[in-house]
Amino acid sequence: xxxxxxxxxxxxxNALYQLxxxxxxxxxxxxxxxxxxxxxxxxxxxxxxxxxxxxxVRSGVIPNDDEANLLKYGRLYNWHDVADExxxxxxxxxxxxxxxxxxxxxxxxxxxxxxHQEGWRGGDQDIGLQLKEAQTDxxxxxxxxxxxxxxxxxxxxxGVKWNGFYITEGxxxxxxxxxxxxxxxxxxxxxxxxxxxxxxxxxxxxxxSKEYMFSVRCVRI
Length: 221
Fold this sequence. Notes:
Helices cover 12% and strands 24% of the residues. The protein is of the alpha+beta class. It starts with 21 loop residues before the first strand and ends with a strand.
């Protein structure tokens, strides 16, 4: 068995590895976890290349095909793997559903009025900032640092893969939910990071083609 993670801190994950609670998946990948409200979440992107039964995941690429990005970002998956009943996540965990994300958003302050809406939401409470990892430089440095990464969720601007190309690294991160919106689209969450984007304090609830490759966070069952 090859361990695709280490428990020792490195330059990328020094702050992340201050979290003490961990979970291991079927391959031996070790993840830091964080409790937010009544939920326990992975505090980093999923890296699994196997389902719980040991069968191979069909997507699961490393951003920019660069091994140095594996611990930094995790892997990117298409929705078909995300929703597969064999389950990408560690045993006792699942890919977060739309309702799981709503529970998280509610617990960190989103209003009930906005919770079920589509589009960018939660700006008054800076929900997006609360989920993003602090930056050593960039636009988040100019924002209230007591809000940035307030809940130790450590969301990073991974970008996505689409039609064979890696795009939007540094500008966005997109998370799949396990829920389908139609035959061709799944429900997602988006966080924006770029200086020119006016939604940096918000989180977007939307739909996207199931063929995109996005990040995945798991929540404990």
